[in-house]
Fold 2-hydroxyacid dehydrogenase.
Amino acid sequence: MDLGSLSENKVAFFSTQPYDKTFFNKYNESGFELDFFETQLNPQTATLIQECAIVCVFVNDIVNEAVIKQLAEKNVKIIALRCAGFNNVDLEAAKKYNLKVCRVPAYSPQAVAEHAMAMILTLNRKTHKAYNRVREQNFSLNGLLGFDLFGKTIGIIGTGNIGKAFAKIALGFGCKVVAYDIITDPEMEKDGIVFTDLKTIFKESDIISLHCPLNEQTKHLINKNAITLMKNHVMIINTSRGGLIETASVIEGLKEGKIGYLGIDVYEQEEKLFFRDLSADIIQDDAIQRLMSFPNVLVTAHQAFFTNEALTQIALVTFDNIKSLLLENDIKNKAALLV
Ligand code: NAD
């Protein structure tokens, strides 16, 4: 890749947290110069980039056409996502301005799948409440009644890397697993997973777990119509992307008691909230406040990926992607190269 006079050794990171610095510094075996910005990338902050051909972004950075145009004017050549999802990047604009875009397609599917199961177990057995209760010397079990997972039907939407790992965990608990994906997976069928249509998933599942990407087809997949089809007291788990759920409809479903449990690691408006300590602030987002007020809703702040193994892979693969693009203008793992 011809970088002209620009330093091919410099990478500008946006939305940087202390753990990003730790892992990227630790695995920087090629000696890249790393410029860490805590701020999100957006049309205003793009001006921070100087003499740099590579920009590294995360889930809530704004990489729309306005930002990409600015990056191109600054001679940025590579946008390296240090995550799997890429719904925040305008790929058409990247093509138009001749920028390469890469991602980390499967850094640790188990990390996210295990977190989805942790949310199910917590919501079901109410361990978060039990923890607080015994600390107050309240050893009563009233209100903590759960159900056996064994024999229940879990519906999985999206059976890629994470959905597949989650299905294996669900099978291990003795659940019946039904799945919907635009591509059927014969190996999963051999394991006893039944592929079916979306309506059947909604109608038959005791628990629905979302593992598909956010795109035009999947936006607000969980809406009023879908909720109407679901079983009473259904549990919905979303560790994928907030936009898969129409928040107002889910709040209605919770108020009516139709939805019995909701576990979300992602939220449609999360970019204004997540990855920050806002404990002294007045939150202006009424929908998240309403969600957090329900006793049967568990919110985690996009932490499903957050394991030692995942952060190690993210750093290693991101550096590999960048090196491959610089040296060969290509990446062997086709799933990693978006443009
Ligand atoms: P993947 O690409 O391996 O799998 C996605 C699956 O969704 C594929 O099998 C694909 O065919 C399917 N799919 C695409 N369109 C669909 C549709 N309209 N309906 C049903 N299925 C559809 O991706 P993955 O690694 O399994 O990740 C899944 C999602 O999880 C990512 O897109 C990302 O948004 C999210 N994620 C969240 C975290 C977190 O920390 N919470 C971490 C990593 C990934």
In short: The chain has twelve helices and twelve strands. The first strand starts at residue 10 and ends at 13.
